[in-house]
Amino acid sequence: MKVKGIHARQIFTTNSRKTVEVEIETSKGMVRSSVPIGTSTGRYEVKSLHVEQALNKIGIIRRHFISEDFSSQKEVDDMLHYIDESKDFREIGGNVSLAISSAFLKAFAQENNQQVFEYLGGKEMPRPICNVVGGWHRSNDAQEFLLIPVHQKSFLDSITRITSAYHELGNRLKAEDVSFNFSKNIESGWATKLRLSSVMDILSKLAEKYGVKIGVDFAATQFWNGENYIYSDGKRTRTTQLEWMNWLATMYHVIYFEDPFHEDDFIGFSTLTHELYKKLVCGDDMLATNIDRLKESIRFNAVSAAIVKPNQIGTITAVAKFVDEAKRNKIATVMSHRSGETDDTLICHLAVGLGCDYIKLGTSGERTDKINEMIRIEERLTR
Q: At 237, is the secondary structure helix, strand, or coil?
């Protein structure tokens, strides 16, 4: 496939931050791809450049992609690594590399007259994991409270149950939190001042009513001061943090624990994974969609699930390798949005195309872009 032109521009994310969008023109038409931005970022993610620098870099390197005839995604991504030999894309920026890599993926699919998920060979729908209420910037002792279907008749059925629970949750929060006025957090989940236990009490009732289970993203690195976890009710050691997780699993039937320990505590993760072997203990900041970090976690048997965020690693090839390695080791894969999203729905196609077990999404507002694309994909799969 030969590219006739590459154009880059600045656009804005859902939280009004600048990001990069790349357009590629081929003989079959034009495709575009944009890069989301995370608010909570792990130190093992690739490095991103400021938008002005990123646009300048694209202007410099695009000749490499116009002059070549590419036959595969790997060739494109190998070229990106040839241009930038660092492991973390510190020279050209992980946001630049992903914008180019993902735009080429869409172009390859277009060349084959397929949607991206079809081009990747996707056949099954993942289950949604949805952020319904959250406490960003340590306004609660957990970053996100999530709802997850245990059994899935269809993606549409699962998301319908979750959104119904989400609406009822808003009304229940209004009844118990005098300051609640249906405001939302950065990912369009409800924002409340209720303490974690109060939120969990409400969610456990709704989970039973709507046939879903509870998950929690603890983002524990944010609460770690180097010696202890600092919470509203005091500090916790690794041992007391572990006891807390077990209590939540017993008391509220939590089935999904994301980042329950700080990003370098493989032993804490491993112990919890062993003790809650029927639950999902998921790594995000610890893994950063980095296959070397994943392999280290496998050595410790540290996780039973792994978050997949393409902008953490910078190329589609690296994302696919990460997912394959996780699957090979029976680790559930969770394709995930970022806090600062765009209208690009690529993660939906990657979730289906790469055969991920779950896709982590918001529930309302601009987050419905992804939900609606998943519904369209499911409809196409079941024709």
A: coil
